[in-house]
Amino acid sequence: MQCPFCAETIRDGAVICRFCGSSRAGPDGEWRLPDRIGPTVAKSPAGGSFSLRFAGVFLVASAFMDLPGLVDAPVFGGLILVAVYLACGASLLALRPWGLPTFLVGTVVYSVERLLYLASDSAVEAGVADSLRAVEGLSELIDPATVSSVTRMTVLFSLAFWWILAFYVVRKRALFGHPRAGRGGK
Fold first, then answer.
1. What is the full DSSP assignment across 86-153?
2. Cβ neighbours of residue 114 under 8 Å, at least 6 residues apart?
3. Cys-Cys link to 5, which of 22, 129, 143, 147 (CB 3.0-4.6 A)?
4. Segments making up each domain of the chain, as ranges
5. 3-state secondary structure of 35
6. How many CB atoms lie within 10 A of CB 167?
7. pLDDT tens-digit profile, the chain (186 residues)
């Protein structure tokens, strides 16, 4: 048999057309127009809530791990980074409409702080000196210039991975109940 609306071949005993969504209405077997055009196969809700919440746990943990180093953080200060980690982590854990803009603002603040850190040679050198002083005799074994280069690369990689997460968060904006997510994300 063919569907009376989309002309696709369906089984004779079909109640719903899997191609257009039209259905048989009532005992007389009369077909009615679908509520919407398209397949009626239910698509699974957008996945990714576990991965976003998992990232949120790590951001909150990062905030607590950074608490002892509040004195060492350059430019905006360590308190700003801790606040960004907590706000972004909470926004990913909660998955509420306020979470998407909170995470995006946190991403911008984090990016500015990290870029200002990279632009400040004295801040990088101070961080390297503190790291080398933490272990007695380490400064004689490792060249501070090498540690400085590795520090800069680490900051760049962490910034890149943060932005990858930000793009993933935007892609999964429907999980936040974002009002524009249902309209194709326009």
1. HHHHHHHHH--TTHHHHHHHHHHHHHHHHHHHHH-HHHHHHHHHHHHHHSTTHHHHS-HHHHHHHHHH
2. 155, 158, 159
3. 22
4. 1-43, 49-175
5. coil
6. 10
7. 888 878 888 888 888 888 777 888 766 778 887 665 545 444 444 577 899 999 999 999 988 887 776 655 554 567 788 889 999 999 999 999 999 999 999 999 999 988 988 898 888 888 788 777 777 777 788 888 888 999 899 999 999 999 999 999 999 988 888 555 544 444
